From TrEMBL:
Domain of life: Bacteria
Catalytic-site annotation from UniProt: 10 (o-(5'-phospho-dna)-serine intermediate)
GO molecular function: DNA binding; DNA strand exchange activity
Sequence similarity: Belongs to the site-specific recombinase resolvase family.
Lineage: Bacteria, Pseudomonadati, Pseudomonadota, Alphaproteobacteria, Hyphomicrobiales
Listed name of the protein: Resolvase
Alphabetical UniProt keywords: DNA integration, DNA recombination, DNA-binding
Signal peptide: none
């Protein structure tokens, strides 16, 4: 049985170290991490790699349920995929596992709460942006990637993968910039 940890943060300027340290202290032999939104499963290559790698008796461990996802259906699908491989899923805070039937019920409820929380966050964010626009102070989101550099590197023949590695962003972000240009 292998304990495999998964750490995730939503943006490139957030830190994964607290999650990694907690997963390591829980005995995770392998820890995969990524900086990508948990709103959907799209582009979450590290999580896909873990699920593909799981074997009977392995255990996927995350610090909080929202690290797996913010959509109830996605969370339940991830758990289902793990169970199909004979693996367990454990959430550390609050401590819940798929070892027993009650764990499934609690994980379903927590998944619904995470989804509802995401909707509340998005609504508050939208309201805040509308207020800021009404007050004339909204300037848009912070630009995290030098778009001109992405375009220049692409024109020089650098692949999207290499651009992403060089600039410390995801390939998806590179593709978005290239699709607008």
């Amino acid at each position: 049985m292998t304990k495999i940890g998964y750490a995730r943060v939503s943006t490139t300027d957030q830190d994964l170290e607290v999650q990694r340290a907690r997963l390591k202290s829980e005995g995770c032999e392998i820890i995969r991490s990524e900086k990508i939104s948990g709103a959907t499963l799209d582009g979450r290559q590290e999580l896909k790699t873990i699920i593909d790698f799981l074997r009977t008796g392995d255990e996927l461990i995350v610090t909080r349920l929202d690290r797996l996802g913010r959509d109830t259906r996605d969370v339940l699908n991830i758990i289902h995929d793990c169970e199909q491989k004979g693996a367990l899923v454990t959430i550390l805070d609050p401590h819940v596992s798929t070892r027993g039937e009650m764990g499934h019920v609690v994980l379903t409820v927590l998944g619904m709460v995470a989804q509802m929380e995401r909707r509340f966050i998005k609504e508050r964010q939208r309201e805040g942006i509308e207020r800021a626009k009404a007050n004339g102070v909204y300037k848009g989101g912070k630009q995290r990637i030098d778009r001109a550099k992405v375009l220049a590197m692409h024109e020089d023949g650098t692949s999207p993968t290499e651009i992403a590695k060089t600039l410390g962003c995801s390939r998806m972000q590179v593709y978005r910039i290239l699709s607008v240009a």
